[in-house]
Structures are given as structure tokens and as C-alpha cells.
Amino acid sequence: MTCEEVRISLGAHALGALDPEEAAEIDHHLATCEACGAELLELEESARSWARCRSATWSWWPALRARCSTGC
Ligand SMILES: [Zn+2]
Q1: Which residues surround ligand 1, an ion (CB under 5 A)?
Q2: Please, what is the average pLDDT of the chain?
Q3: Domain that holds residue 47
């Protein structure tokens, strides 16, 4: 996986929303790529904010936004 591919799925990974197979591929990349690891930490932080449904501006992931609006 390239960094670009990882970044695309990283948001979902931060939320544990990926297939186990895909998550494993990303974990494998993260084990060797510091930059993507740092990105994941930031996304996890953002994901926690999202879990509180205080930000409705994440247009990059409509599925999450939909879940947020129905779940809260
Ligand atoms: Zn990377």
C-alpha cells in the first residue's frame, strides 16, 4: 500500500470501520511509516470529537456524517 492509499482509508481505520483485511494492510504500513502513523493519531483525535457529534463539517466522509445525524 502506498501512503496515498493509506491516507484514503485512514479515517475509517481510526473509527474501526474497515474490513479486518484492509485494517491489517494499513497497520502493516503504519508499522513502517511514521508520517501516516502521525496522521492516524490526528484522525483518532478528530474521530473522538466526531463521536460527540460536535462537528458537522467533515464533508469528506458522508457515511460517517449520516451515522452521526441518525445516531444522535
Ligand atoms: Zn505512509
Answers
A1: 3, 33, 36
A2: 81
A3: 3-71
The answer to whether 25 and 1 have CB atoms below 8 angstroms apart is yes
Report d(CA 7, CA 69) in Å as an integer.
25
Q: How far, in Å, are 2, 37, 63 from residue 26 at the CA level?
A: 10, 10, 20
| Domain tally, the chain | 1
Give 37 Cα–ligand 1 centroid separation in angstroms.
7
* pTM greater than the 0.70 cutoff: no
Is-contact 47 14, C-beta < 8 A? Answer: yes
